[in-house]
Amino acid sequence: MNTTINIAIFISGKGTNAKNIINYFSAKKLIKVVLVLSTKENQTISNLCQDNNIAFLVPNTTQLSPTFYLQQLQALKTDWIILAGFLRKIPQELISHYPNKIINLHPSLLPSFGGKGMYGDFVHQAVLASGIDRSGITIHYVNEEFDKGEIIAQFSCEVDPSDTVSMLSAKVHLLEQQHFPQIIEKTIFE
């Protein structure tokens, strides 16, 4: 029996959270990152994957079918999928195959500021426009609807009236770096 839990990370952006997760689990024995799937070329993450013996994949749009995902994941005996800034909707077939084993990170306190098109700076702009005094991150399971899966954990930060989008983004990113890998680990072993 495979005693190591294999995780795949799906990304669409710079991959800073993927890098953080890879570095966090590189020293662990029971959880191993086996794949990073990116929607675009990313030389920094590609190099990091190569250095850590992790598969790095940038499928073209015609390959992004449920069958393709499942083939890649099953070939690497993937147990969990981590979405770290992945901007595509996860196919129903994948959700069915990995029930409560797909975790997403969202840059607001859901259920506020979630849903289709709400990612990155769009979220931070909406938070600032609303005038609320707290934002943060939500780590949640993925289901069929954008940002509607069961919440695993939330961490918050203050929103100052003088905050700009980049200032709020930096606060939220700090929370992501501090908490996401640990919550992944805790959730896997619950």
Structural notes for this entry:
It is a single chain. The protein has 190 residues and is α/β, with parallel strands linked by helices. It has a domain at 1-99: Formyl transferase, N-terminal domain (Rossmann fold). Helix content is 37%, strand content 23%. Helix 1 packs parallel to helix 6 and helix 5 crosses helix 6. It is globular and about 50 Å long. 35% of the residues are buried.
Topology:
Blueprint: E1 5-11, H1 16-26, E2 31-38, H2 43-51, E3 55-57, H3 66-75, E4 80-83, H4 92-97, E5 102-106, H5 120-130, E6 134-141, E7 151-158, H6 165-188
Parallel strand pairs: 1-2, 1-4, 2-3, 4-5
Antiparallel strand pairs: 5-6, 6-7
Helix pairs in contact: 1-6, 5-6
Descriptive keywords:
190 residues; alpha/beta; Rossmann fold; 7-stranded mixed β-sheet; 6 helices; globular
CATH topology of the domain at 1-99: Rossmann fold
Instruction: Give the H and E element order.
Output: EHEHEHEHEHEEH
CATH evolutionary superfamily of the domain at 1-99: Formyl transferase, N-terminal domain
* Low-confidence region ranges: none
In short:
The chain is of the alpha/beta class and 190 residues long. 37% of the residues lie in helices and 23% in strands. The longest helix is centred in the C-terminal third of the chain and has 24 residues, at 165-188.
